[in-house]
């Protein structure tokens, strides 16, 4: 009797275990199936994803939103429009005299850094003109020391730069680009890149030596136009030995240097694509030459104006976005017209920190 009672208890216990095992198997199969079906539902147009319905159109909108979120890797901040030169082809003219207060400018730069900015280029107008270069110096210092940007650069005509500026702010500047369109003083006079009796060429060489002394990478920018298109600058460029020689084709921007509302009339400076190519071929032996035709230049720069608005140049004029100080970088950059692919194609991203250039000072 005890034997049958014990056997019955063992059989009952085994049955319970078998039932538990079977329940466990069923639950596992259910979980796996649910996981598989949820994956299929996620990718099938027009079916449930959780509590919402995802259509093909919805996914296309999501993808467009991702594509429209651009990173302001390299930004050109034209914080002033005032200039002491009168270059006939200038396409960022003195339409206003406005300059943001220093702390507001810093706030905008901080927003850009938080959005992914790696390089800031300060330009104008003439950036050394406002507050005798102190405003510019404080921005350079802030971007390098506080924001820790990999690259801080300036484009200037060089006429207002003093050695004491290098002594105070040179450590925080990676690249100084000086605009020089000709190595003939008479040609510079015709273009308007001059002030009084000062020699633009002599000043260029002086600044080159300061860059060497205070360990700032030296760069030259040239705008090729009807007055200098036949010039051979090879010998002078090789002597100055810049890290980059940026060569631009003269560009027309409606409302700036062309059209009824423009402060400049640059039509007489414009050259053809063929003329530009002939100039480049003449200087093909210069290894530091970086050419930029109108096609490459128009949409491949992120330009901030004096109000910290992105400027859209796609229609041949400068249409401003809302200020990043008011709507943020993500919203404003959507209206910039920026072509990231062309930015990369033209070599917009390069070794731009002087710490990485391995220059011999």
Automatic annotation (TrEMBL):
It comes from Epinephelus coioides (Orange-spotted grouper). PROSITE patterns: RADICAL_SAM. SUPFAM superfamilies: Radical SAM enzymes. GO terms for biological process: defense response to virus; innate immune response; positive regulation of immune response. Its cofactor is [4Fe-4S] cluster. Residues 1-34 form the signal peptide. Keywords: 4Fe-4S, Antiviral defense, Endoplasmic reticulum, Immunity, Innate immunity, Iron, Iron-sulfur, Membrane, Metal-binding, S-adenosyl-L-methionine, Signal. This is S-adenosylmethionine-dependent nucleotide dehydratase RSAD2. GO terms for molecular function: 4 iron, 4 sulfur cluster binding; catalytic activity; metal ion binding. Belongs to the radical SAM superfamily. RSAD2 family. The keyword Iron-sulfur applies. It is found in: Endoplasmic reticulum membrane. GO terms for cellular component: endoplasmic reticulum membrane; lipid droplet; mitochondrion. Residues 69-289 form the Radical SAM core domain. InterPro entries: Aldolase_TIM, Elp3/MiaA/NifB-like_rSAM, RSAD2, RSAD2/Viperin_antiviral, rSAM, rSAM_sf. SMART domains: Elp3 (SM00729). Pfam families: Radical_SAM (PF04055). It is a peripheral membrane protein. The keyword RNA-binding does not apply.
């Amino acid at each position: 009797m005890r034997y049958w009672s014990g056997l019955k208890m063992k059989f009952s216990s085994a049955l319970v275990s078998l039932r538990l095992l079977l329940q466990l198997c069923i639950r596992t199969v259910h979980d796996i199936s649910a996981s598989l079906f949820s994956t299929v539902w996620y990718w099938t147009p027009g079916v449930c994803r959780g509590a919402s319905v995802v259509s093909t159109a919805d996914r296309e909108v999501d993808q467009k939103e991702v594509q429209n979120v651009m990173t302001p890797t390299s930004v050109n901040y034209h914080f002033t429009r005032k200039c002491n030169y009168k270059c006939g082809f200038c396409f960022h003219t003195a339409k206003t005299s406005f300059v943001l207060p220093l702390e507001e400018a810093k706030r905008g730069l901080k927003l850009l850094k938080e959005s992914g900015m790696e390089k800031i280029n300060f330009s104008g107008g003439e950036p050394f003109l406002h507050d005798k270069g102190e405003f510019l110096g404080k921005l350079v210092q802030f971007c390098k020391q506080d924001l820790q940007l990999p690259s801080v650069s300036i484009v200037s005509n060089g006429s207002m730069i003093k050695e004491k500026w290098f002594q105070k702010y040179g450590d925080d500047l990676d690249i100084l680009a000086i605009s020089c369109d000709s190595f003939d003083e008479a040609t510079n006079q015709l273009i308007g890149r001059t002030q009084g009796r000062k020699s633009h060429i002599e000043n260029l060489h002086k600044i080159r030596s300061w860059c060497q002394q205070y360990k700032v990478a030296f760069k030259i920018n040239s705008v090729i136009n009807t007055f200098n298109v036949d010039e051979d600058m090879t010998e002078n460029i090789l002597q100055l030995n810049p890290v980059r020689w940026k060569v631009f084709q003269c560009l027309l921007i409606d409302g700036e240097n062309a059209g009824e509302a423009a402060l400049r009339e640059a039509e007489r400076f414009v050259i053809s694509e063929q003329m530009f190519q002939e100039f480049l071929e003449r200087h093909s032996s210069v290894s530091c030459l970086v050419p930029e035709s109108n096609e490459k230049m128009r949409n491949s720069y992120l330009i901030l104006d004096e109000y910290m608005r992105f400027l859209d140049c796609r229609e041949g004029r400068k249409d401003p976005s809302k200020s990043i100080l008011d709507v943020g970088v993500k919203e404003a950059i959507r209206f910039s017209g920026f072509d990231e692919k062309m930015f990369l194609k033209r070599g917009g991203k390069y070794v731009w920190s002087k710490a990485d250039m391995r220059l011999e000072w």
